[in-house]
Write a structure and sequence with these properties.
This protein is of the alpha/beta class. The protein is built from four helices and five strands. It has a five-stranded mixed beta sheet.
Length: about 100
């Protein structure tokens, strides 16, 4: 697998990051986005489960940062399979981006 260039979009919860992500991805030629526990390509889910579906805030955060091993492996394997050149990672802080 070749190296992947990782771009980050950081902002407060509810600030419109997910909404702007498609524009930014298009502008920089990025085909894959990691957002809220999902790997997305061309607005379609490639792998993962949305943190928004979790019942508690703690589990939503764990889902978003791929804390659960089977979820993390599912997305990691999809990234290996898809072999992207660039990925845009969306998060609420640089600490969160680095965990992802």
């Amino acid at each position: 697998m070749k190296s992947v260039r990782v771009f980050a979009l950081v902002g407060e919860s509810g600030s419109g990051k997910s909404h702007r992500a498609a524009e930014i991805a298009y502008e920089y030629g990025i085909k894959y986005i990691v957002d809220d526990g999902l790997l997305i390509s061309d607005t379609k889910k490639v792998a993962g489960s949305s943190a928004k579906r979790e019942k508690t805030k703690v589990m939503a955060v764990k889902r978003a940062i791929f804390f659960v091993e089977d979820h993390r492996l599912e997305v990691a394997n999809a990234i290996k399979r898809e072999n992207p050149e660039k990925i845009l990672v969306i998060g609420t802080s640089l600490k969160m981006i680095n965990k992802i």
